[in-house]
């Protein structure tokens, strides 16, 4: 479903070239929860950003479903991004908009009729457990609730892939577990493929089917989580 083939990303800066991702090849299956773990600077963000075209590889190829992301033009990419959505460590909500308005935002951009927007937002609010919070502003919500809004917004256009960029790193352990449980439920109900990056082993162990370990831009290990991280 997702094929990353010999992807390399080099950032050219004034003083030197930084090889953020170095010849990474990964195959991620439909319906899988796939984790990428590594220390800060390992290249995780750059890798995940290549999956929705926020970064283009310097060489190599990124394929999602039938689409070669790494060679798509802007117009096509904008369309594809509705199907490859993302949630973030710091939620990236619009602070002047209510919960319902945040969730409907991608639908507005996609030109979905108002009536359909309303119906979809109501479904999503229920799915993520935010009933009664529709008219709150993000500042009135806890961290876990903010991430639920982020998840609902990411799901609004019925994506094929959900990318999670350190999505629980700003949350306490209990809230982290609640959000992770929600991600598993969504994967099960919607047959979504989830790719997450994290520096937390707990996240990988709790919900990932398979994982890759990144170091210095390279994938140094990959396999089923049970095998990769089994206790000796
Ligand atoms: P991680 O997400 O694992 O912390 P990143 O992908 O953010 O790793 O970064 C990998 C390396 O690439 C780091 O050395 C980082 O400083 C560098 N890097 C990331 N983005 C850029 C950029 N836009 N310009 C220059 N260097 C970058
Ligand atoms: P995150 O918390 O997601 O890892 P960062 O603070 O590492 O975010 O990076 C924020 C943004 O800055 C990203 O778009 C990343 O590509 C860019 N960036 C990271 N490192 C560098 C760098 N050394 N030079 C320029 N841009 C960078």
From TrEMBL:
GO molecular function annotations of the record: ATP binding; ATP hydrolysis activity
Entry GO CC: plasma membrane
Domain ABC transporter: 2-232
Entry's Gene Ontology BP terms: amino acid transport
Cell wall biogenesis/degradation listed as a keyword: no
Keyword tags: Amino-acid transport, ATP-binding, Cell membrane, Membrane, Nucleotide-binding, Translocase, Transport
Family: Belongs to the ABC transporter superfamily.
Stated name of the protein: Methionine ABC transporter ATP-binding protein
Residues of the full protein shown: 1 to 232 of 339
């Amino acid at each position: 479903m997702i094929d990353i083939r010999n992807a390399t990303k080099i950032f050219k800066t004034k003083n030197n070239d930084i090889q953020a991702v170095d010849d990474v090849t990964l195959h991620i299956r439909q319906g899988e929860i796939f984790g990428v773990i590594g220390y800060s600077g390992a290249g995780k963000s750059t890798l995940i950003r290549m999956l929705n075209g926020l970064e283009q590889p310097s060489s190599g190829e990124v394929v999602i479903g039938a689409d070669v992301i790494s060679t798509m033009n802007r117009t096509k990419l904008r369309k594809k991004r509705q199907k490859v959505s993302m949630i973030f460590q710091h939620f990236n909500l619009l602070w002047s908009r209510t919960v319902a308005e945040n969730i409907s935002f991608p639908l507005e951009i996609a030109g979905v009729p108002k009536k359909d927007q309303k119906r979809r937002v109501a479904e999503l609010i229920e799915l993520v457990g935010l009933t009664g919070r529709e008219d709150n502003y993000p500042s009135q919500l806890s961290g876990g609730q903010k991430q639920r809004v982020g998840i609902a917004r990411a799901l609004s256009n019925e994506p094929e892939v959900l990318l999670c960029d350190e999505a629980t790193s700003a949350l306490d352990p209990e809230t982290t577990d609640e959000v992770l449980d929600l991600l598993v439920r969504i994967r099960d109900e919607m047959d979504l493929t989830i790719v997450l990056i994290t520096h937390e082993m707990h996240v990988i162990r709790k919900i990932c089917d398979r994982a890759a370990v990144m170091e210095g831009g390279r994938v140094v290990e990959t396999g089923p989580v049970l095998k990769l991280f089994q206790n000796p």
